[in-house]
UniProtKB/TrEMBL annotation:
Cross-referenced Gene3D superfamilies: Medium-chain alcohol dehydrogenases, catalytic domain (3.90.180.10), NAD(P)-binding Rossmann-like Domain (3.40.50.720)
Lineage, opening ranks: Bacteria, Pseudomonadati, Pseudomonadota, Alphaproteobacteria, Hyphomicrobiales
Family per record: Belongs to the zinc-containing alcohol dehydrogenase family. Quinone oxidoreductase subfamily.
Organism annotation: Kaistia soli DSM 19436
Domain Enoyl reductase (ER): 12-336
Protein name: Zinc-type alcohol dehydrogenase-like protein
Length: 339
């Protein structure tokens, strides 16, 4: 089978940043599915892994968002059968999905939304899992409770995770959603997704929130620029509030931790790969989350965050997708589709 890999950690501008290779089609493990890949999406994690150093041994295949069709299943598979259309985010511990066929544990796979094509579906899994797990599993917001009147500040609202977090919060909670965006086009995007208010993260956040009548916020989800906004986040979060992070906590210094300690703030770290990396007891929760997201899409309550499609899946187009993500100016998600 064909696959797109990298053998050296090179700048995305280098024509050799990605190469096409040929590998044997994988065999399924007991709970695995073998999926014929139709579309993949690129996330910041793809770029971070590629830039972190040369792979050990053979070239490494990336790709942590995929949609396709099941062609075979493992001996203990229970959730899917050949012919099922699926979408998922995969495991960072296994080869990625930038290949014609891919092996994935069925417990982290969801049923593709019937109302979306493969490209539109591939934009959703990693970001939806990240947003859902952080908001509902880590922070403990209860989905379906429309009487929750707390305020939610989403920093970097127009990015991939922010774009789906806004929608999940609006569809499943009563939270007042405030998103940050620094350009007219990104501000319009987050408004279209349902944000109640938009503030500019290129300007001081405190005065803008105070002008909206929200000098403090109950929950902050920081999806970008965490180090830049650490002091503001620590100052703005309400006593007994919550801060959710996906970039780690090293952006917060002693002063910020002191401020948060005085307010008994809950600090929540989220890595979407934790359940698959450690095969946690609740690993199958990711299957349930993706099926719930699929249902919300088909009910018209949330929509795909796809904004850019490239094709076919090739070294050149994956380079272009990585370039878009690394620009820091992406709105929504970029997908590479078809062979």
């Amino acid at each position: 089978m064909r696959a797109i890999a990298y053998s050296k950690s090179l700048p995305v501008e280098d024509p050799e940043a990605f190469i096409e290779i040929v590998r044997d089609q994988p065999e399924p493990g007991p709970r695995d599915l073998i999926v014929k890949i139709e579309a993949v999406s690129v996330n910041p994690v793809d770029c971070k892994v590629r830039k972190s150093g040369d792979p050990e041994g053979e070239p490494r295949v990336l790709g942590f968002d995929a949609a396709g069709t099941v062609v075979s299943v493992g001996t203990e598979a229970q959730l899917f059968k050949p012919g099922d259309a699926v979408f998922y985010a995969g495991s960072i511990m296994r080869p990625g999905a930038n290949s014609e066929f891919h092996a994935v544990d069925e417990r982290i796979v969801g049923t593709k939304p019937a109302s979306l094509d493969f490209a539109a579906a591939a934009a959703l899994p990693l970001t939806a899992l990240t947003a859902w797990e952080l908001l509902f599993d880590r922070i403990g917001v209860v989905p379906g409770i429309a009487t929750d009147s707390r305020t939610l500040l989403i920093v970097s609202g127009a990015g991939g995770v922010g774009s789906i977090a806004i929608q999940l919060a609006r569809a499943l909670t009563g939270l007042t959603v405030i998103a940050t965006a620094s350009r007219p086009e990104s501000a319009e995007w987050v408004k279209s997704l349902g944000a109640h208010h938009v503030v500019d993260h290129a300007q001081p956040l405190g005065p803008q929130l105070a002008a909206l009548g929200h000098p403090g916020v109950d929950i902050v989800l920081a999806f970008g620029g965490t180090k830049q906004h650490a002091a503001a986040i620590a100052g703005l979060v309400a006593p007994e509030g919550h801060i959710g992070l996906i970039e780690g906590a090293d952006g917060f210094g002693a002063a910020e931790f002191g401020t948060m300690f005085q307010k008994s703030v809950g600090l929540h770290l989220e890595l979407m790969f934790t359940r698959s990396r450690f095969e946690t007891r609740d690993i199958e929760k990711q299957h349930a989350i993706l099926d719930a997201v699929s249902g919300l899409v088909d009910e018209g309550k949330i929509r795909t965050t796809l904004t850019k499609t490239l094709g076919p899946i090739s070294a050149a187009n994956l380079r272009e997708a990585h370039r878009s993500v690394e620009s820091g100016r992406m709105i929504g998600k970029v997908v590479v589709a078809g062979w």
